[in-house]
Structure formats: C-alpha cells, structure tokens
Specification:
The structure is a homodimer. Chain A is mainly β. Helix content of chain A is about 10%, strand content about 30%. In chain A, the strands form 5 sheets. The first copy, chain A, has a 5-stranded mixed beta sheet with strand order 5-4-13-8-9.
Chain lengths: ~400, ~400
Amino acid sequence: MSNTISSNARRHVLKGTVAAMAMAGLASWTKLGFAADAKPLPGYADWKIPGDIIVHSNNTLETKRSAYGTSVITPNDQLFVRNNLPPPDAEILKDRDAWVVEIDGVAKPAKLTLAELKTMGLETTAMVLQCSGNGRGFFPHKPSGTPWKVGAAGCVVWSGVPVRALVQAHGGVKAGAKYMTGTGGEKLPDGLDPLSVIVERSVSADAMEDALLAWEMNGEPISLAHGGPLRLIVPGFTGVNNIKYIKRLAFTEQETKAKIMSHGYRITPIGGTSGPDLPSVQQMSIKSWINAPLPEDGAIKAGRVQIHGVAFGGTHAVKGVEVSTDGGKTWTAAKFVGPDLGKYAWRQFVLEADLKPGEYQLASRATDTSGESQPEARVENKSGYNNNSWLDHSIKVSVA
Amino acid sequence: MSNTISSNARRHVLKGTVAAMAMAGLASWTKLGFAADAKPLPGYADWKIPGDIIVHSNNTLETKRSAYGTSVITPNDQLFVRNNLPPPDAEILKDRDAWVVEIDGVAKPAKLTLAELKTMGLETTAMVLQCSGNGRGFFPHKPSGTPWKVGAAGCVVWSGVPVRALVQAHGGVKAGAKYMTGTGGEKLPDGLDPLSVIVERSVSADAMEDALLAWEMNGEPISLAHGGPLRLIVPGFTGVNNIKYIKRLAFTEQETKAKIMSHGYRITPIGGTSGPDLPSVQQMSIKSWINAPLPEDGAIKAGRVQIHGVAFGGTHAVKGVEVSTDGGKTWTAAKFVGPDLGKYAWRQFVLEADLKPGEYQLASRATDTSGESQPEARVENKSGYNNNSWLDHSIKVSVA
C-alpha cells in the first residue's frame, strides 16, 4: 500500500506544482495536499491524484472543490467515486469483450457479449455524473451518509451503444413496460436477502432514448472504480441510476422491489420513514457552484478577478447563470466560456469583477431552458438528497 | 527508473484490460503492450500509459492508433509528445503562478506573472494538437525525422487567457506588426548561436484572435511534457507553432530569424535546400483517419461493423466525412457522433457497414467548410510534412 501511495505521489509530483520541491527532496504528504492523517486511496482507485481527492471511506471519494479546472471535462483521475457495494473482483476486466449483459422485456430477449454490443452502434455523450447526495454536507440536520459538498460530481464523456439501437434490434419494448430496470454485477454478501442489497434501479422507460451501455469513459476503457467493463448511462439522472457492471437491462411493468429502489434514494421527511410511495431520486435539478476564487486560496488581491464555476440542468440545458458578490442581494449575468458539449454536460461560466478590499459572499444561480432556477433554500429531506440551494453553495472570501 | 515503470504499469493494470492477469501474477511487459525491447518512457513523461505509447526517442512519443478511443478528447496520459529541445528543469513548475512572460510589440509592453494573467480573462478551447510531421512515416523516400503514422495528434481542451484580451489591456498591437512571435523557455545548449537552436516561431498576427496563453490542459495544470506552466496555443496551427514554456510573446514586423523558423518546418522539394522563401508549415489541412477496425485486431467477424475515426480541418470546421471499404472506388457518407467541440476540435465519425468475409481496404476522406477535401496523394516534400493523403491513411483488414 505504501508503494501504491508513493507511485501516485510521484505521478502527481511530476505533473503538479510541487515538482521542484520533490526533486529537491522537500516533498511531504502535507505539501502534496495529502494530510498526514488523511485516509489512503483504496486499491481499486489508487491511480487517482491523492492531493485532489477527499477520501471519506473506501467506497466514497470526493473531488476537492479547488481541484476542478476550467476544461469542461473532469479527468478520470480527479473524478469522485461512490459505490453502494464494494466493486467486483478485478477479474471481470480480464476479458472485457466477454462480459455478458442480458436484455429482457423486449420482443426478442437476448444475452449479448460486449464484443457483440460494439458491432450494434456507437454513440458518445458528455454528461454530468452526480451523486444524489452531493451537497448533503450543507444540510444542518447532519443526515447519515457521506457529507459531500460539491465534489460528488463531474462532467464525463461516455462512449457505448445506444440503448434504443439495442431495443430496436430486439424487436422493441414489450407492451406494458413502463420502466427501464438495470441490475449491477456486484457480488452480493452471503446470508442476506438479495433484494435487500442488490444494486438494481428502475427509471422511466422513456429514458432509454438517450441512454447508453457504455464501455469507455473520457477516452479510456471504463475502470473498475467507475463500473467497467460495462455501465448503464442514463443522462440527466443521478449517479445511482447509472448502473455499474451492468449484467441485466430489462423493460418492466413495475419498479424493481430491490430495497435500494423501494426505500433507498427516496425524498423522505426528516424524522419520517422511507418507502415506495415517496418520490424517488431520479432526474437532477438545475444547479451551479463557483470553483474560484475559494476561501482556501487565502486573501484575494484587489482588482480584476475571474469568478468561475460550473452549471448544469439535469435533463434540460442551462440557459443562463447569474453571479452575486453580496450574498444574493444583487445579481449580474455571467458569460459562458468553452465548448457546449450538449444539454447533459455542464457549462462553465465566468464573471469578470473588479473587487475592492473587503469581505464578499460569492454565489451563483443558474436557470435552465424549462425556466427553472436554483432556489435560495434547499428542500429539506431526511437523507439530504438533491441539494441545489444557491445559498448553501455560496462562499465567503476576503479581498485585500 | 524501474520503480517508475512499475508504478505506471500498476496504474495501467488497474485501469486496463489486463487487471486480472496482473492480479493473478501473470502480467508481463509484452502483455501490457510494452514489448520487451521497447524503449522506456522518459522520466518527464513516465506517467503516460506505456501500452498506449510508441517511444521513438526521449523527445518523441507517439500515441498508438489502437489506443484512440471514441470520447473525442485525447486523455493526457495517451497524448503524443514532441519536443524540439529537452524540456526545462522541473524546477519551473515549483511556483507556477510566478512564471513570467514578456508581452512586446504592443503600445504598452509589460512583463506579467502567470498569477496576473489569471486575472485578465478566461477562455477554454478544444483543439487538435498535431505535429507537422504526423504521417511522415507514409512517405516512401523515408525523410529524416520521426516516422509518425497517425499518432502525433490528439484533441485537447486548453484553458487560459485570450491573447486578444492581453493585447487590448496593453494598448493594442503596434502599427506595422504583421506577425505574432512566441519564444520558448527551454535552456539552450552552451556554445551554440542561440538563433540556431532557440524555439521561436512566428505566425500571422491575425492568429491572435483565437490564441490563448494556456495554463491548463484537459482539466489539469499543464505538465512539463506538454509545455507547463504556460503554453501559447494557436488553434488550427501545427504543434511547433504552439510554443511551450512561453517566456515572450511579441508582435513583430518580421518573422523571427531563428533557424527553426527560417529553415525548419519549410515545405522543401525532395533533394532541395530549405530556406525562408519556401512555404512555412503553419495552418493544418483537412484530414481524417480510421481508428477501428485495425489490421492488428486480427480477422474481423463478418456482419455489422462500426467503422470509426476522427476528422479535423485545421482552421475550418469539418463538414463531412466519406468512408470507403474498397480502397476508394466507392464512398459512403459517414455520420458524426458525439459532441461538437468547435471548429478547431476533431469530430468523430462512424459508418455502420455489413461486411461479408473477404479482404477490404478501409479509407476515409473528409471535407471542410471551405470546400477542401483530402487528396488521394500526399504532397511530396523533403521533410515529410502535412501528409493528409486519404490513401496513405487507408488500412487493409480481413473479414472472416
């Protein structure tokens, strides 16, 4: 394990700002942004950049707010990880093309290898991948679960076969099917009711229109950490609906009875009990946040400042973003920068501001093409899902 | 060095297809795509994926054609490297924000730190970075220089300050300036005339409109291998015009007298002598190639095949791509897939074809928005620059 850490550190050193320190023998974990008491990256994700990641647990790794760049795409080695179960054995990547996925709830059900999928179509989609609980760390009632702030999200390019092409090749969806249900290939713990632990989620069958069975992520075969060799990608839906190691894709009349669907990821009143009648966490809501300047950068030099961040609208494109430097009293339209990768990707925004010495509260508020804007207040819920409050995501900075 | 290789190998193993082999102790250099006699990656680029790279020399690393994915962006750890001089000491990355660049040939010349540049504007541009000699390996007269085939190119997202914003902030370009001249910060060998070795190039001053001084590449601070902490980005122009470690940007009445400009990168007749009167290698030409299927994949299974590749037009967007399976006798329009990242990026194309057993010659031919199409024949020249022949880039595959 120590060898693993040092290899990552070396990689980071050579690419990063601390190269010369390291060359001069001055590197230390703290200087690498890797606090002495920080948890190490788990083995399956030890190729991530340690200084860019907050390790909450072996199954929950967060991107630091300060690590987000301005290049639209989040690199693989900075992207967050959230696993509901430990990842399968790396053995499943031995022969990627031999991976089998079952297609059911279509006129002609089939089992297909990844090699066969690759002959059936090709699409590439840029999409924000965001954990349902991103922003949970801002809820004052301290919900159980990982206290993510902004870093359980990234903008990723996926390549794979369109689900609609698969469905078409297999005679279409069976009459009466209302849901698209994906089943993950994680090994289930012995001695438990499988439905109590299996990662199986249902989304509206309509979501198949833009969904992929993807084998590539940001130009590389999907890693074990991110669901390789094959992952269901449902653009605009929160992370849990994008099933890793997918082994079955079925069009079903009913939602799965798996507990992760019936009780997990439901918008439940604080103090209440979760259950299938409560709203399920599915499509993402309009959201944005500022990535620079940040309080951890220390006092900002007075004068021109480029305030920048990211904005995304779930299943709707972002129409505009406003930025406030006074905690939301006044707002100014920011401008978009960089390429538009489609409605499921995030847009970068920037506001050039001339700031005099003083204290500022920086906030951003995005609006999507359906007219929805970020609210000031989060929607309170037991588990801390779907936080898109602009106030919660605002930051206080000093200008000197 | 061996430790360096093993850390990369480990990283590749965990992300790649051979994970299980490695876990079972079966990994070998050849299985990692790293032939026993292959040269190791040089230290400044030892974080690249060894199995995805052909090491021609310490200064010339090529992406394998089989390594290109279908996610539009070329990841940093797969991207080619071509240095005209060895990179500067890594010390220059110790304090990136302290890097100084001189701006000259404007009304108010200045020296600016990278920290100051970051306050002056922000733009993000996706661009094909391609070595002038990419495709040299197809010239039958075997020009001196690296025999690149397709792998001295990648599509990269850059972030930095627009040069036009800098120019505006410094009173505009001086009257009479026709060129934008960038100077690299490489350490020059002692005892030689600096002009004979310095990396200094001039492009038309108009190119400043979309040029950047960039500090970020694909979401991460620019590595030493790729010109960090600061690189001049001139979208649509070949790699050599995108000056690494830039220390001076000047608007000049004349082209630089540096040898790399006056004699290097000139389209010279075979057997002739290079010189400033010959055409300089600047804007890229319309070009495309197929990345799959490839001969090295072995015999392809008869039936539906997804023939895919990339196409780009230099300073013009790609309008369309045709694909031939019979060596150019007949052509079929391919379709674009994936996001359009702007006119300087490449587009992915795909043609779905039903192939019966037999031998095929796969070719692609792109057309740009100015009406230019790839020619069948390369333009012969001494140093093997600007090869965009569709025939040279065609491949022969077997279907069984």
